[in-house]
Amino acid sequence: MEKCEAAARDIRGETLNHRVSARHLDLASLKSVREFAAKVIEEEERVDILINNAAVMRCPHWTTEDGFEMQLGVNYLGHFLLTNLLLDKLKASVPGRVVNLSSLAHVAGHVDLEDLNWQRRKYDTKAAYCQSKLALVLFTKELSRRLRGTGVTVNALHPGVARTELGRHTGMHRSTFSSFTLGPIFWLLVKSPQLAAQPSTYLAVAEELEGVSGKYFDGFKEKAPAPEAEDEELAQRLWAESAHLVGLDMSHGSPVRGQSLSRSPLEQV
Hints:
This protein is of the alpha/beta class.
């Protein structure tokens, strides 16, 4: 929250817009997601744009507060619940837009509906990350179908590789070879956080994208996603399973309390 508050202060100072606030949201906790959404619904008149940006990448086999595999829980399920809880607000604020930050890594992903939480298979941190990012593209496709005619659009995005702490679990910075041989090349290819944020901003406000929905963008350009990401039946089945996991009442789009996986200790990310 200290870093978040500092960023909010910087934005207020640069823009002279005092209606910039920082709020706590832990995507590894369904309780936190619900509390955050409830505050937004109560305190904000409109929700014009929702950018689902947060992620954890290739962390150890940790679980969230609710027992979800950490990458699935943070990268996908937390955003799935948050978006659904804010849908009524978005629909009341049309035209509205949702931007889901996926990754080029989704092309190597596979959604295993029989074992989303890696309880049966040997855990593969890379495969788990790719699955979570593929799930976001499938979520985008199904949400777009459900939002037809509402004035709210949703698109998925690979923003490029940003110079952030997202890769802190990959081990590259701890490798002498990687640091001295690949490091200089890597730093030439990655974007600053400011540049990496531009595609998200473009999808959120570009006039030429009005009405464009259910698409996948690589930077500023629309691109065909992986074949599995185009599977409409899989997208619908994943939605149903996700709603069950997070306790979402499908008839009203509201959370049903008391529905979760067995709890496991929360590792801090």
